[in-house]
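#onboarding

Welcome to the new folks! Below is a worked example of what a typical request in this channel looks like: someone posts a single protein sequence, and someone else replies with the predicted structure as tokens. Don't worry about understanding the tokens yet, we'll cover that in week two.

Example request:
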Amino acid sequence: MTKIKPISQTVNEETLKSRLFYLLTHCPLLTGQNCQAASGQPKVRTVNLPADDADLVSLHVTLPYKLRREALAAGINCSELMRKALKRRLKKEGLI
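Example response:
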């Protein structure tokens, strides 16, 4: 298991949630844009689409390490926050 280093500057849980939510809602994948790597080239990995809408898929999001470490230290579940952000965005777009 990864050891979490102490954070020199304390940030409250609401601030961390707000930062993570901002990052997730401005992610190019969630805003209908293409996601590009630092080199400017899109990194795309294709998979076979699931046969059923209820099948589970995996989505990976890259965060700055410091932000992830602060979230872990505050006990924030980044996966749950990502699911909520995606669901909110889909509702806003009228897709669900």
